[in-house]
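Shipment paperwork, digital attachment
Item: protein structure file
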Amino acid sequence: MGIATKASGWRARIAVLGAVCGAVAVVAGCGGVDQPAPPRLTPAEEQAAKGAVFAYRTDAELAVVHGAETVRAPGSFGYSSAAVAFTRDGQYAFAVETSSKTLVALGVRDRSVTRIPCDCTDAVALRGSVVGWWREPGEIMSMDLAGSEPAAPEREIVLPDSPSPLTGGAWDGAKLVAATDEFVLLARVESRGLWWEKSHLYAIGPDVILPLGRVPGIDAGLSAAAGPDGHTFVLAGATARSATCGSGNVATIDAATNGVRALPTLPGECSAAYSPRWTADGPISIATRKWADVVGAPSMVDRLQSAAQGWAPVGEYPVVDMLPQTHAQESVIEVVAGEPTDARGTPHGVLVVHKGDAREELATQVVSLGAPTATG
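Attachment content:
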């Protein structure tokens, strides 16, 4: 399938040039030696020098923040709590509208807004500026956001039988949920309608399709993120006990061996887990909700990270989302949780950026965040 990618640097080189004899250019009598030109920055280094890049989403807007600049695109993202994704080269942020099944992308450098009718609910970054999604009955579609060509089939797929037998339901579509250089992870949904569903996983490599089957506890609302090794993924989802209550669960799966590791159970009588992240030098983190199985009971929201004794909050107070820091001097970017929401509602909060002792509120009613990674 060709999903290899190039690595790219993200640390800017900054040249400090002293004045020469009080003039911008070298003049006669000051040695007569031309000063070397400052090193040319790559696009990624130029981007990093302007300041942090991240994206956020509300129910009705996708926005990219780049230093002091913000570019926005309206959209009908509805109830989705999915994180904002970036292309592998970090040049585009994207999310999928739940109502129109349209992919909306924003350019970090060129500030472009692209809308792609994909008839999909999820899309993933494949390589460079290329995004991909699943199209029934069996195609991986792709489009290069930096190019001018329309979306096109990249590969036809015939999914083999799942090693986990059907349990009274019928196939109800599939979606791409994560991707690395080695594998694209696909979830095929078995459903009886309403709230009942089971997710069957497949790992699609350049020359192989591996049927992984079901992962215990990861049935409904499956979301995933790639791990740092290229073939392991973190999964989040829930097992429903009724239409109003279920238990959120988290696990990792090695696509190459189908080895599964269950993470500790989430607290709460009823709970949900979604929007996982797994950074190269940090713990696994997930967005969570928990509530009592009582009519009208509110849900408590927080983002948790894996710890020695189970799960621990990522911050000092509950947050809807928080981006991981790569070094201690970096800004803290978080969506502070507001009032408890209805158990079925989508959590929202205030987007806050902390830099040293400064605190700045950038937006309200924010659902999720995203930031580029260094995979390029």
